[in-house]
Amino acid sequence: MPQVIDVTALWDAEAGVWVAESAQVPGLITEAPTMEALMDKLQVLIPELLDANGYPDGEEVPFRVLSERSAVAHRHHA
């Protein structure tokens, strides 16, 4: 089974997008407004970039997205 590629996705609140990159896929950096849209982009970009960088062929390229999104909660005092 091929090695699972780890992709890190961070929420950029100012831009309103998820920004993803992976040290295992040279040149991978992309963004999308939703996690679903990001996953769709990654399914295309990861194989394309691996092919462009001369990585060994394989039918499937498993990957997982490790995401982080921060927020602030406000307390309401009575």
Give a written overview of the molecule.
The chain is an alpha+beta fold and 78 residues long. It has a single domain, classed as TTHA1013-like (TTHA1013/TTHA0281-like, 2-Layer Sandwich), CATH 3.30.2390.10. It is built from one helix and four strands. The protein has one helix at 35-52; strands at 5-12, 17-21, 29-32, 63-68. A four-stranded mixed beta sheet has the order 3-2-1-4, with helices on one face. The chain is elongated, with a radius of gyration of 16 Å. It starts with a strand and ends in a 10-residue tail after the last strand. The model has no long low-confidence stretch (mean pLDDT 92).
Write a compact overview of the structure shown:
By secondary structure, the protein is of the alpha+beta class. Helix content is about 25%, strand content about 30%.
List the keywords:
four-stranded mixed beta sheet, single chain, TTHA1013/TTHA0281-like, 78 residues, alpha+beta, 1 helix
Main sheet: which strands, in order across?
A: 3-2-1-4
Kindly name the structural category: alpha+beta
Compute the separation of the termini in Å. Answer: 57 Å
Oligomer: single chain
Instruction: Please provide the count of β strands.
Output: 4
CATH topology: TTHA1013/TTHA0281-like
| Secondary-structure element string | EEEHE
Poorly predicted ranges (pLDDT <50, ≥5 residues)? Answer: none
Determine and state the CATH class.
Alpha Beta
Categorize the overall geometry.
Answer: elongated
CATH architecture: 2-Layer Sandwich
Give average pLDDT, whole number: 92
The fraction of residues in strands falls at: 25-35%
For CATH, the homologous superfamily is named as TTHA1013-like
Main sheet record: 4 strands, mixed
User: How many distinct folded domains?
Assistant: 1
Relative helix content: 10-25%
